[in-house]
Amino acid sequence: MPLMAEMHDATEEYLETILELEEEGIIPIRARLVERLGVSAPAVSEQVNRLVDGGYTELLDDRSLRLTSKGRILATTVVRRHRLAERLLVDVIGLEWEKVHKEAALWEHVISADVEQKLIELLGDPATCPHGNPIPGSQRRVDTGAHVALTDSPPGPVVVARISEKLELDKDALGLIAGASLIPGNEAVVLAAAPGGVRVKTSMGEHTVPDAVARLMWVTPAV
Question: Is the pTM of this model over 0.70?
Answer without folding.
Answer: yes
